[in-house]
Amino acid sequence: MTSTEHHLDEAVDRALRGPARDRNPRVGCVLVDPAGQVVGAGHHAGAGSPHAEVAALASAGDLASGATAYVTLEPCNHHGRTGPCARALRDAGVVRVVYAVPDPTAQAGGGAAWLRAHGIPVERCAHPAAEALVSDWARARTLGRPHVTWKIASTLDGRVAAADGSSRWITSAEARQDAHRLRSRVDAVVVGTGTALADDPALTARTPDGAAAPVQPVRVVVGLRDLPPGARLGLGPDPALHLRTRDPHEVLAALTARGVHSVLLEGGPTLAGAFWRAGCVDEVLVYLAPALLGAGASAVPDLGVRTIDDCVRLELAEVRPVGPDLRLRLVPGRLAPSTPPGHPAVHALVPPVPSSEED
Amino acid sequence: MTSTEHHLDEAVDRALRGPARDRNPRVGCVLVDPAGQVVGAGHHAGAGSPHAEVAALASAGDLASGATAYVTLEPCNHHGRTGPCARALRDAGVVRVVYAVPDPTAQAGGGAAWLRAHGIPVERCAHPAAEALVSDWARARTLGRPHVTWKIASTLDGRVAAADGSSRWITSAEARQDAHRLRSRVDAVVVGTGTALADDPALTARTPDGAAAPVQPVRVVVGLRDLPPGARLGLGPDPALHLRTRDPHEVLAALTARGVHSVLLEGGPTLAGAFWRAGCVDEVLVYLAPALLGAGASAVPDLGVRTIDDCVRLELAEVRPVGPDLRLRLVPGRLAPSTPPGHPAVHALVPPVPSSEED
């Protein structure tokens, strides 16, 4: 391991002291003097608190002068609530900056360029653990909203329930456990009031033995209808958030304001169809049971596709066996040559990149 | 390579001189004297001709005495059109028999046991090329009818056509080429008159450049309606066989009588449903396009499943990417614990083993 990797590891360790779910990503910074001694360290404690670089400079005091800064994320160059970190590093006498992940936001980016323009050498060093700290946040920043995964658990013939409406269970215990692991990795799990009223789901992430997983997603129910008293989504220390709207953009804006960077759609075809038509589905995750029903509700709602040339084409990003089932991860593919440009069913997957406000 | 493998290779080479599609499998035999010299060789030239052992004995004449026989298939022990080969080998003075594949039919099997009971050492030596020669035939003998593969080319949501009926193409060029290779490997391709009238398919096996493949399946159309003059199934040197029935058992009996050991169902859901309900589907092959239609005809017809406990469970035997698509091969799985015994949708996949008549 090089000393650079070692100091970035230290910065990652510091970053992990920050909150797991926040509007901002976890960032860590260590300051190292020419002899290789760590003279300061800091992390970002959540939106509104000082950035990691500022915290590290404060802990180093005068010792920052002449030090190299190792930061998990490129120092910012904008005046948010905390002032630009690039300038703060320069003003404190830092002589070199090493960072792991470029800042993906045009608003805040440019810190590396600013430092170089002011005579301070800057080096980027890829670091997987540092990338993992910011990937959800970066993706959400790029999208201008949380990243949305549409989860489907269906038979080979695309059914999510039998003719009589029964659906427990289509997929195997292994696939359902995998889906629980997924819940504890996303920031929010969303269903519509239809699913909430029909199935009374808990939407908690559980371990294979049925216990609550250590990290739980924000549980969200979307729609205008009330849930009955005693509904499982209303129970627990953190009752589900009930967003009284049918507009996916409103849902995602409300979740963005709560620091949600990733969303798992677990509702039925109605909810998924609304997100799809609004251009708010970034990934489709299908748990495919090697089973046939021949009748019953379809996993995929009417998408407005009338003829084969308008068929929605995705790209298989990953195929993985999960117990007896298959898990397919699909992402927007290139347009089929015969698809007219601008067709909404496909464009829905490639929303424009808006700007964002949080710091 | 051992001398046994070498002589079985020679027997396989001889076998390949026989007809590729016949009621009987291709079988080859070589007779080798104690010095290792081949003193006789023969192959089976199709139903009604002498068995390979008899042909080899005839070519060896008196030199057969004292020789070892290498045969791709266990010598028969029954009086068909040709008399039992086990006895013929013994009578000719063969002192040892090596074979690759046991005869799966109770009627003809027992040749090895008969030889041993008459003091002649018999050895079985597994040989993949020899197994490949007889696998389709052996499977059909075990089933008492041709092995039936139900081919589906569908979207992720189980659709085979868009809302307006258009379906060219759901899957990629690579998947369609793979399906053409499959056609040239099965003995017969079957559609219903519905598909024949709607799509006017040729059902020939073609190479990627569009030329006819060297080996073509028997083309079969099933149903009571006439095809119009000029239908592509009526064209070519071997026009399609039109079986005027709706009964899958009648179809398979007619094909068995024509030496067909394997059938590919390429018709739509109506044909597949009839075969399914009749218990005549042994394998499901799905070309799955990573695409969504949200509406349109379903790949899988109503199978009589009303509730989730009766869901038809298959086992994924193979998953293979074919271009951008996936190819899934599925075979009957074990019954789900909650499935009542005797449920037809699953039992349909495990027919009883009947006896068979051909020689």
TrEMBL record, chains A, B:
Boundaries of every CMP/dCMP-type deaminase domain copy: 2-123
Region Disordered, residue ranges: 1-20, 337-359
Cofactor note: Binds 1 zinc ion.
One GO BP: riboflavin biosynthetic process
Record-listed Zn(2+) binding positions: 51, 76, 85
Active site residues according to the UniProt entry: 53
Binding of substrate, residues: 167, 183, 203, 206, 266
UniProt binding sites for NADP(+): 153, 169, 195, 199, 268-274
Keywords noted in UniProt: Hydrolase, Metal-binding, Multifunctional enzyme, NADP, Oxidoreductase, Riboflavin biosynthesis, Zinc
InterPro entries according to UniProt: APOBEC/CMP_deaminase_Zn-bd, CMP_dCMP_dom, Cytidine_deaminase-like, DHFR-like_dom_sf, Eubact_RibD, RibDG_C, Riboflavin_Biosynth_HTPR
Reported cofactor(s): Zn(2+)
Reaction equation(s) it catalyzes: 2,5-diamino-6-hydroxy-4-(5-phosphoribosylamino)-pyrimidine + H2O + H(+) = 5-amino-6-(5-phospho-D-ribosylamino)uracil + NH4(+); 5-amino-6-(5-phospho-D-ribitylamino)uracil + NADP(+) = 5-amino-6-(5-phospho-D-ribosylamino)uracil + NADPH + H(+)
EC number: 3.5.4.26, 1.1.1.193
GO molecular function: 5-amino-6-(5-phosphoribosylamino)uracil reductase activity; diaminohydroxyphosphoribosylaminopyrimidine deaminase activity; zinc ion binding
Superkingdom of source: Bacteria
NCBIfam families named in the record: eubact_ribD (TIGR00326)
Similarity remark: In the N-terminal section; belongs to the cytidine and deoxycytidylate deaminase family.
Function comment: Converts 2,5-diamino-6-(ribosylamino)-4(3h)-pyrimidinone 5'-phosphate into 5-amino-6-(ribosylamino)-2,4(1h,3h)-pyrimidinedione 5'-phosphate.
Protein name: Riboflavin biosynthesis protein RibD
Species for this entry: Ornithinimicrobium cerasi
